[in-house]
Amino acid sequence: MAKKFMYMNTKAPYGTIYALESLEVVLIGAAFEQDVSLAFIDDGVYQLTKGQNTDGIGMKNFSPTYSALGDYDVNKIYVEKESLEERGLTLDDLQHLTWEDEDEDWAEKDSIKLVSRAELADILDDQDVVLSF
Amino acid sequence: MPIEVNGKQLEVDEEGYLANLNDWEPAVAEVMAKAEDVELGEDHWEIINFLREYYEEYQIAPAVRVLTKAVGKKLGKEKGNSKYLYELFPYGPGKQACKYAGLPKPTGCV
Q1: Is the CB of B21 inside 8 Å of chain A's CB atoms?
Q2: pLDDT per residue over B49-75, tens digit each?
Q3: How far apart are CA A105 and CA B72, in angstroms?
Q4: Minimal Cα–Cα distance from B56 to chain A, Å?
Q5: pLDDT tens-place string over residues A10-30
Q6: Cross-chain Cβ contact A71/B69 below 8 Å
Q7: pLDDT value of residue B105
Q8: Tens digit of pLDDT for each residue in A49-85?
Q9: How far apart are CA B52 and CA A99, in angstroms?
Q10: Considering the domain A4-132 in this protein, what is its CATH number?
């Protein structure tokens, strides 16, 4: 039976390797057909921001890869409301991530779901495995 | 060992993938295919070009399952299946086609 895997993303995209490593683990793990969710909290919300530009820091801009998550059947992406607000961000500052529902004639659906800290706590409670990056 | 393409020595990793994405030109695919006794036809190029576009957009080489699905959507169902893709790229459409396309090995391929 598929287990529920949650990948918690808590750090800014560049400056440490955590964000990129997490994304790679998610993509690799997606091959194993588990029930995968991602959460973005604290500075982790910056990973999803639009218009990232890494010119000058010598790192690859891997933010376009988040748009491929839908292709990998990763379509439960939770963003914590309080973390966004504390940083003066709104959903409009984030990439618009979607997935296509094969069961509904490939209807395009939003992957990102804004949740409160309390709601996220409940979602975490429901997981079999939680990996924090 | 580097490969020679149009008189230039291009660095590859131990599995034959280009070390530098920017070294790629169509002749790279020809040289790699020849070494594996594959003659590249239009159908091969369609997939190679598809992969390069996918990488351009998403910055990753897709896993074979994702490639198959994406090809089916873009090029039609008769091409978006493992049989068709494995006939073109018998060493595995993910690995072999990505290599010819100058991309890194697909994330998740071992």
Answers
A1: no
A2: 999 999 999 999 988 888 998 899 888
A3: 14
A4: 9
A5: 999 999 999 999 999 999 888
A6: yes
A7: 82
A8: 999 999 999 888 999 999 999 999 999 999 999 999 9
A9: 21
A10: 3.40.1260.10
Cα separation, A32 vs A4, whole angstroms: 12
Domain count, chain B: 1
Confidence band for A2, pLDDT divided at 50, 70 and 90: confident
Catalytic residues of B: 109
CATH code (residue B61): 1.10.10.370
Partner-chain residue, chosen from B58, B65, B107, that has the shortest CB–CB distance to A24: B107
The model carries a pTM of 0.87
Among the residues of chain B, which ranges form H helices?
Answer: 26-35, 42-58, 64-75, 82-88, 98-100
Q: Least CB-CB distance to A31: which of B58, B69, B108? A: B108
State how far residue B37 is from chain A, nearest Cα, in angstroms. 30
B110 part of a folded domain: no
| Pairwise CB contact (< 8 Å): B63 & A27 | yes
Q: Does residue B108 lie in a domain region?
A: no
Distance, in Å, from the CA atom of A73 to the CA atom of B51, rounded to the nearest integer, reads 19
Residue ranges making up the domain that contains B56 = 3-100
Whether chain B has a CB inside 8 Å of the CB on A16: the answer is: no
Q: Does B70 reside within a domain?
A: yes
